[in-house]
Design a protein that fits this description.
heterodimer; A: alpha/beta; Rossmann fold; six-stranded mixed β-sheet; four-stranded antiparallel β-sheet; 10 helices; 10 strands; 40% helix; globular; disordered C terminus; B: alpha+beta; 2 domains; twelve-stranded mixed β-sheet; two-stranded antiparallel sheet; 12 helices; 19% strand
């Protein structure tokens, strides 16, 4: 049974002419234990996909099963509870509470389980030990380096022992040393059996992944398995095509589009795109 | 709310401590509201106690006869014995009739004599010169500081001074035997009365500043035309005061040829009237002060709204790690409750300090009214919770993604 199962999930924002389609009938199935990298240009819907999978957001249409349970129509409070017990979040901007120490930040998710303070801090401390941050547990986030802050955030994501870790560009604000530290940590966690989804712009980081999903304009345009330790094929092609020409830019052709392997794959994406317009019209009527 | 745990209260205290100045200013509204309500209620109660204490001191059975028909002004169901038609006086015959009325133990006249006294320290005009008889001190239950009340009514030279008058007229602490001139006649101080105790809002003549001369002496000075403004009578048996009042009323009515141009009152009636007036005043002012409790609540709401907006990102993070709407709600409610409870505690302490200062530095004697404290505390905590819930609900219902995005 896949841990994540999306069936024709769409997400619309706004009304009428201002409607934007952030996710366009995305279907995706992820098995437990996979380490999935999600790539794509800005605005392609990666973050929206992460938010939907992490139950921060509700899909407008479609069905979503998390760990075998249908979660696409949950009320906010039910979603909060599943989020607390099943999902750990790692953000690009770390999102630690600046006035709490590293230890208190890690213990925060446990607070909402109504756990006693002593037990919470104990669990948080052992989690910090796991990410190598225990010597700094009484530091405030402002006293730590970027890599260290993200390590603390990883400890927070892990403290509830979630089945799924969602990392939205975890290395986006980090230097190379910090990125390495964070990715090594995630890869260790993956080895322990956790399922990890992470968004990245850096093709190099697909080395750590077992699977790479490429998105464009709210659709999944490419989905490939890859060996750990190797940059994924399509990602490698993106790397080799670093220069974007002005014409391509104006035509709305991204490096990803050029890097996609076969013409017919792109063609299916195009046909889907035309279909999308009818979908939007249909939904517009309903409002 | 079961999620209002000790932990969330502790977290609230911590959050409020990071903005000490702002938290204090927020509480200031509550503090001022609570302390003013309590202080005003205490002052009102203090005045009431003073007035009733004084009336109890002279005796609830003391009967006063005054000239004129008492005008009764009505405010709703509240009757105020406010204005007396004091034109006209009581006569000697009135006095002797009252004295002879069945059930009357003692009766003394109180007359006002015009003119100024010239004492050792010059002219004295701070108080009236009152003419009365030797039973006066007995009738109103007043003790002597020094000396005696007139030894007998034939001694037309002896006078008695109120405590303040004695201090104002003479340099000596005990001015017994001192003399002063009044309307051409020399008088000798035979005694000084005890302090009457202040009675704010009392319409009575200020006895502390008064000079008491024998009624006989005033009759000599005025050619038997002393204007008696009041006759004080004491029933022989205290419990029969009501019967004696109607006896006096009946006999005076007969004497005046059925002309009802006088008023007979018992002190207890005076007390009831005064108490009602004071109660109404206290309630009015307390009500005005209670509005500041409301203002305090609005202050809490205001700051909480600012706080929710400021901490939107934090709310997003908390929601992302699994906080339910209810848990966010309880965190912000805890802050509102901590703010209002702390404000109430400080407000009560401030009001107690103000009470103490008033007792030390003014003639007011505020009495701590526990029901007022409890009501003020409960009401302001309730207002804090009520007004805190709107911002807390706003925080709780925030969409997590929108909250995370705000910076």
């Amino acid at each position: 049974m896949p841990i994540i199962e999306l069936k024709d999930v769409s997400k619309l924002y706004g009304f009428g002419d201002a409607t934007t389609l952030a996710l366009d009938e995305v279907s995706l199935s992820i098995e437990a234990g996979e380490f999935v990298a999600i790539m794509g240009p800005s605005g392609c819907g990666k973050s929206t996909l992460m938010n939907v999978i992490g139950l921060l957001d509700r899909p407008t249409h479609g069905e979503f099963y998390l760990d075998g349970k249908k979660v696409s129509r949950l009320r906010p409070n039910q979603a909060a509870k599943i989020r607390r017990d099943t999902v750990g979040f790692i953000f690009q901007s770390f999102n630690l509470l600046p006035k709490l120490t590293a230890l208190e930040n890690v213990a925060l998710p446990l607070l909402y389980k109504n756990m006693s303070t002593t037990k919470r801090l104990k669990m948080a401390s052992s989690m910090l030990e796991r990410v190598g941050m225990q010597p700094r547990e009484y530091y405030l986030p402002s006293q730590l380096s970027g890599g260290q802050i993200q390590s603390v955030a990883i400890a927070r994501a892990l403290v509830n022992n979630p089945k799924l870790i969602i990392a939205d560009e975890p290395t986006g604000n980090l230097d190379s040393a910090g990125s390495l530290l964070v990715m090594e940590l995630l890869s260790e966690i993956h080895k322990m059996g956790n399922t990890i989804l992470f968004v990245t712009h850096n093709p190099e980081l697909t080395r750590y992944a077992t699977r790479v999903v490429y998105m464009h304009d709210g659709m999944i345009v490419q989905d490939e398995q890859t060996a750990i330790g190797q940059v994924a094929k399509t990602a490698r092609r993106i790397m080799r095509r670093p220069q974007m020409t002005e014409e391509n830019d104006l035509a709305g052709v991204s490096a990803l589009m050029k890097a996609l392997p076969a013409k017919d794959d792109v063609a299916t994406a195009e046909s889907k795109k035309s279909r999308r317009k009818t979908v939007v019209r249909k939904k517009g009527k309903r409002r | 709310m079961k999620t209002l745990s000790r932990g969330s209260i502790r977290a609230a205290i911590k959050a409020l401590r990071t903005h000490k100045g702002r938290s204090f200013l927020t509480m200031l509204g509550v503090i001022i509201g609570v302390s003013s309500v309590i202080t005003i209620a205490s002052i009102g109660q203090g005045i009431k106690d003073q007035v009733s204490g004084q009336i109890n001191h002279v005796g609830k059975d003391l009967i006063t006869v005054r000239p004129g028909q008492q005008a009764v002004t009505s405010v709703g169901d509240l009757k105020l014995f406010s204005s007396f038609q004091t034109n006209g006086t009581l006569s000697n015959r009135d006095l002797s009739t009252v004295q002879k009325t069945h059930g009357v133990g003692k009766a003394v006249p109180l007359g006002i004599v015009g003119g100024t006294a010239r004492g050792e320290r010059g002219t004295y005009s701070a108080g009236p010169v009152l003419a009365t008889t030797d039973e006066f001190a007995n009738v109103i239950n007043q003790g002597m500081q020094y000396g005696t009340f007139f030894m007998n009514n034939d001694d037309t030279e002896g006078v008695v001074l109120g405590a303040h008058a004695a201090a104002a007229m003479f340099n000596e602490l005990v001015p017994l035997g001192q003399t002063f001139n009044f309307r051409g006649q020399d008088f000798v101080v035979r005694g000084v009365l005890n302090d009457f105790g202040s009675a704010p809002l009392s319409t009575d003549v200020d006895f502390n500043n008064a000079i008491f001369i024998p009624y006989a002496a005033s009759q000599l000075l005025t050619n038997n035309a002393t204007s008696t403004y009041e006759i004080l009578a004491k029933p022989a048996v205290a419990s029969q005061a009501d019967a004696v009042v109607s006896n006096i009323h009946a006999s005076l009515l007969k004497l005046h040829g059925d002309d009802h141009d006088f008023t007979v009152l018992k002190q207890a009636d005076n007390l009831a009237a005064t108490t009602r007036v004071l109660d109404l005043l206290t309630q009015l002012v307390t009500g005005a002060a209670a509005i500041s409790l409301l203002v305090g609540g609005i202050g809490i709401m205001n700051i909480m709204l600012v706080s929710v907006t400021e901490r939107m990102h934090e709310i997003g993070i908390r929601k992302a790690v699994g906080a339910t709407n209810r848990q966010i709600l309880s965190e912000f409610m805890s802050e509102a409750i901590v703010l209002s409870c702390t404000g109430v505690v400080i407000g009560v302490i401030v009001s107690l300090i103000v009470n103490l200062l008033l007792r030390l530095f003014t003639s007011l004697t505020p009495v701590v009214v526990w029901p007022a404290i409890i009501v003020a505390a409960v009401v302001s905590i309730a207002i804090g919770v009520l007004f805190g819930s709107a911002p807390a609900l706003k925080a709780a219902r925030k969409d997590p993604i929108a909250a995370l995005r705000s910076e």
